[in-house]
Structure formats: structure tokens, C-alpha cells
Specification:
about 180 residues, mainly alpha
């Protein structure tokens, strides 16, 4: 496939995002280990800090007390880990698409499944957000659930593009059979 500045920039940017997702996921794992190892010191610092601000989209900091602090932290770490792994897989698929198109057609059947995977992951991210907000709501007794329509729309658009690529792959296969 013919290269362009936009394609090259996007390929590099996708690789950078994959590396950032790996680093972020590793940081989440290390944070979980540090929280487990320093449990007493963290809880003491949290209860003594009168101006401690801890905000997420799903929880009010005023509802977190000593008994709910660590369950909230565990829920947030699990949510961050799941999102990190999903982003790693998503950006890895993007990188593999660019790698495949260096030597083969963009309508290669492997790219079709990669685009589908990206679409499914894009739809899974808001679902994970809802599940995390529900879990945090049960822990803190303060529910705030929200998902932006653009998050769901992005996944649906990617799945539609996968259908177009599948059609292109079948057309390409038919043309190759004629030659």
C-alpha cells in the first residue's frame, strides 16, 4: 500500500499509545502492590488528610470512609487494569493492521478480524465503565452512572467499517480468482 505522512504518523502514534498503555497497566499493577504493602500508612494518611480530594466519575469523595477506602481502591485498580489490557489489545490490533498493509492488501482477511476486535473492545470500554460505576456505587452507597453516546457510537462505526472491509476482502478474492 502506498505510504503517506498521515499513515506514517498514525502508525507511530498508535505504537506510542500501545507503549503508554503497557506502562500505565504496569503502573496500576505496581500501585496495587504498593497499596497492599503500605495499607496501614495509606489509610492513616487518608484519614488524617482533611483536604484529600479523590474524584472519579462514579464516586463522591465524601462517601469514602475508613471501611470503604480499600474496597474502593481495589475496585478502581481492577477497573484500571481491565481498561489497560483492553487498550493494549486495541492498539496492538491497530499496529498489526498497519504492519500487514505494508506487505499485503488492506482488505486482507486478518485485518477484517482485527477491525472487528477493535470494534468489540471499543464497545466493551463503556460497559466496563458502567460495571465499575455500579461496583463503586454499591461500595460507597453513592451511585453515579454515565456513558457518553460517542463511546458507543465509535464502537458501532468500527464494526460497520469491519463489514465494509469484509466485503472488500471478498471482492478482492473474487477478482484474484478471475485472473
Amino acid at each position: 500500500m502506498r505510504t503517506s505522512k498521515l499513515r506514517n504518523f498514525t502508525a507511530v502514534f498508535a505504537k506510542v499509545m500501545e507503549v503508554i498503555a503497557w506502562v500505565g497497566t504496569g503502573a496500576i499493577v505496581l500501585s496495587g502492590i504498593a497499596i497492599a504493602a503500605l495499607k496501614d500508612q495509606i489509610l492513616k494518611a487518608y484519614t488524617e488528610a482533611s483536604s484529600f480530594q479523590f474524584t472519579t466519575t462514579g464516586i463522591n469523595p465524601g462517601t469514602i470512609d475508613e471501611s470503604t477506602f480499600f474496597p474502593v481502591m481495589i475496585a478502581l485498580l481492577i477497573y484500571g487494569l481491565v481498561v489497560g489490557v483492553l487498550l493494549i489489545i486495541m492498539f496492538r490490533n491497530v499496529n498489526l493492521i498497519f504492519k500487514t498493509t505494508n506487505t499485503a492488501s488492506p482488505f486482507d482477511i486478518s485485518n477484517v478480524s482485527r477491525i472487528k476486535n477493535i470494534g468489540y473492545i471499543a464497545l466493551a470500554l463503556p460497559v466496563c465503565k458502567i460495571i465499575a460505576n455500579i461496583a463503586l456505587g454499591f461500595i460507597s452507597k453513592d451511585f453515579t452512572i454515565g456513558v457518553e453516546a460517542s463511546e458507543v457510537l465509535f464502537g458501532l462505526i468500527i464494526l460497520c467499517l469491519a463489514q465494509y472491509f469484509a466485503y472488500g476482502a471478498s471482492l478482492e478474492k473474487d477478482v484474484e480468482g478471475l485472473l
